[in-house]
Every structure is written in structure tokens, then in C-alpha cells.
């Protein structure tokens, strides 16, 4: 069986007692607002009547204070009515509202004069602070100056003390300002301060290292380091390497061109030599059948006619002449006119 404990709690907002209390408070608040509205309308009506009559309107009354259930709060408010800034303005017996306002105005004026005198006395006490200069000894602007609590120090003495302290620290401390050498560059200009000064000159660089010991090869190392870190030197090296590469490529191209030309010359010479030594039997280059046939026939006819004319007076040698002519024709046909030997031979036979 569930327990319904919420209805038994005094702080439950849905209890009948609490609901009735809320309704009662709301009714009282509404009645209070209506009463305040009525009083405000009465005061406003009276004020308008005074204005219409040409009289001075009365001072509006202060807002009514709400009653408090706390007795301590009520006592505090009651005690502070006359002391607070919004104290209740009560009239003394036998005076009207005008007399009351005049009295309160005089009291306010007296209070203001007393406050002003108090501020004047306070300002006189702090006259030294107010008369302090805005600029201090260091040249800084201070909008709220204060009296200097300590005496000014001697700047020369302070500088001397700082120099001694730094000299003592330099005995066991290495600073970046002395990285090039301990107190060796004091009073000297750096090498990059003058455009005409050569940092690699013999007298421009010390022969001692940072520890003060002799180092004869320091100049060589510094010069090499400067050449390595110099962008102009790097550009010059790059240009030199580029020129060397171009020359090497040009030399290689010339050698290749010469080799190709020599190979072409050798090939041409060999082809000519082969063409002179032996002509191909089956080659038909520049061959014309009609021209060669006529030429061969004419030559053979001339030779045969000559032989016949010469040998006509010797009948016994006719057979030998014919044989010699046949051999000559055969040799000519074999050397100059391959493939047409029979046709020429047939042409020569009837003429014989």
C-alpha cells in the first residue's frame, strides 16, 4: 500500500491551508493596490485644483511603506526614517507644508556646507600629493602622482656599479655580444658595416680563436665558410658547372657526328669497291633490250663482214674463221647480253 506523504507536508503548495493563504494574500494585495490608487487619485486631484487656483501645488507624499512581518526590519526602518536619503518629512506642531519645506531646505544646505568643509580639510592635508608633478624623474607620465618614498639615486654611481658587476660576470660568463672574441671587437666596426672593406683581407681577420689561442688556419676556414655561405659564389659555381656541361655535350655531339660521317664514307667506299669488283649477273639496272640488241647485232655483223672479206681469198681457212666468229659471239653474248644469246646467234647464222 503506497504512502501519500506529500499531502502531510507543510510546504506542499497544494494543501488546502496553503491554497487558502495564497488566495487571502492575493485579495489583500488587490485591496492594497486599490487603496493606493484611490489615494494617488485624491492627491492628484488636489494638486490639479491648486494649480487651477494659481496656488503652489503641494509636495507629493512619499510612497507608502509596505508593512513587514519581521519586527527587526520594522524597527530598523523606523529608526532610519530620519537618517536615510528618503526620510519621511514630518511637520512640527504649528507649521504648514511651506514651513516644513523651508526647514528641510535649510537643513540640507547646512549639511552640504559641512560636507564641503570636510572635503576642503582633506584636500589641504594631501596638498603635497596633489601638487606632485605629472612627470617623474624617468620621464614617465603618472596621472595619479604620489610622493616619492625614496631618494633619487646618482645615475653615475649606478652606471659605475653596473659596469663593475658586468666586468665581474664576464670572467665566467660567455655572452653572444662577445661571441667573436672576448673584448676584441670593442671600439671596432663589424665587417659588414663598410661596403669597401674586404673581410677576407690579411689584416681584417684575427689569427686567434675565441679563447685567445693562436690559430693559424682560422683565416682559411673563415674564407672557406664565407665561400660556402656566399650566394654569389654558389651562383658562380653553378654557372661554371653549366658551362662545363655544355662544352662536354658539344664535344660529345661533335665526336658522334664525326663517327657517323666516317661510317658513311666507309660504307660509300665499300659499296663502290664492290660494284667495281663484281657486277651482279641477275641485275637489271639500266637494262634496255632494243638498244642492246641492235648494238650487239651491228657489232657482230661488222666483225663477221670484216672477217669474211679478209678471209674470202683463203677458202681453206673458212671453217676456222666461222668457228672463231662463233666463239667471239658466244663470249660477247655471255658477258654483255645474258638471256638473248639464241636470238642473236640465229640472226648471225643466216648472214654467214
From TrEMBL:
Start-end of Pro residues biased regions: 57-66
Location of region: Disordered: 1-133, 146-166, 195-255
UniProt-recorded name of the protein: CBF1-interacting co-repressor CIR N-terminal domain-containing protein
Domain CBF1-interacting co-repressor CIR N-terminal: 10-46
Compositionally biased residues, Basic and acidic residues: 22-56, 100-128, 150-162, 214-228, 243-255
Classification via SMART domains: Cir_N (SM01083)
Amino acid at each position: 500500500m503506497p504512502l501519500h506523504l506529500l499531502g502531510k507536508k507543510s510546504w506542499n503548495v497544494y494543501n488546502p491551508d496553503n491554497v487558502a493563504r495564497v488566495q487571502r494574500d492575493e485579495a489583500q494585495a488587490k485591496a492594497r493596490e486599490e487603496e493606493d490608487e484611490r489615494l494617488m487619485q485624491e492627491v492628484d486631484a488636489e494638486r490639479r485644483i491648486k494649480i487651477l487656483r494659481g496656488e503652489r501645488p503641494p509636495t507629493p507624499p512619499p510612497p507608502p511603506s509596505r508593512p513587514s512581518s519581521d519586527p527587526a526590519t520594522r524597527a530598523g526602518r523606523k529608526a532610519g526614517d530620519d537618517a536615510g536619503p528618503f526620510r519621511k518629512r514630518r511637520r512640527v506642531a504649528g507649521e504648514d507644508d511651506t514651513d516644513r519645506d523651508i526647514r528641510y531646505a535649510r537643513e540640507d544646505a547646512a549639511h552640504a556646507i559641512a560636507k564641503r568643509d570636510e572635503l576642503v580639510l582633506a584636500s589641504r592635508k594631501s596638498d603635497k600629493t596633489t601638487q606632485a608633478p605629472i612627470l617623474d624623474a624617468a620621464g614617465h607620465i603618472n596621472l595619479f602622482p604620489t610622493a616619492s618614498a625614496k631618494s633619487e639615486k646618482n645615475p653615475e654611481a649606478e652606471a659605475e656599479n653596473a659596469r663593475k658587476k658586468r666586468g665581474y660576470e664576464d670572467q665566467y660568463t660567455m655572452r653572444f655580444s662577445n661571441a667573436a672574441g672576448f673584448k676584441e671587437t670593442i671600439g671596432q666596426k663589424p665587417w659588414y658595416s663598410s661596403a669597401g672593406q674586404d673581410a677576407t683581407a690579411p689584416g681584417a681577420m684575427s689569427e686567434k680563436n675565441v679563447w685567445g689561442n693562436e690559430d693559424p688556419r682560422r683565416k682559411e676556414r673563415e674564407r672557406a665558410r664565407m665561400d660556402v655561405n656566399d650566394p654569389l659564389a654558389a651562383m658562380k659555381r653553378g654557372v661554371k658547372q653549366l658551362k662545363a656541361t655544355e662544352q662536354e655535350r658539344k664535344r660529345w655531339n661533335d665526336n658522334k657526328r664525326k663517327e657517323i660521317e666516317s661510317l658513311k664514307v666507309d660504307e660509300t667506299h665499300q659499296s663502290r669497291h664492290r660494284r667495281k669488283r663484281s657486277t651482279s649477273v641477275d641485275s637489271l639496272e639500266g637494262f634496255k633490250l632494243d638498244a642492246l640488241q641492235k648494238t650487239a647485232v651491228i657489232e657482230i655483223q661488222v666483225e663477221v663482214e670484216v672477217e669474211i672479206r679478209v678471209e674470202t681469198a683463203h677458202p681453206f681457212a673458212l671453217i676456222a674463221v666461222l668457228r672463231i666468229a662463233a666463239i667471239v659471239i658466244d663470249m660477247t653474248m655471255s658477258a654483255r647480253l645474258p638471256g638473248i644469246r639464241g636470238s642473236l646467234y640465229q640472226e648471225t647464222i643466216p648472214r654467214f
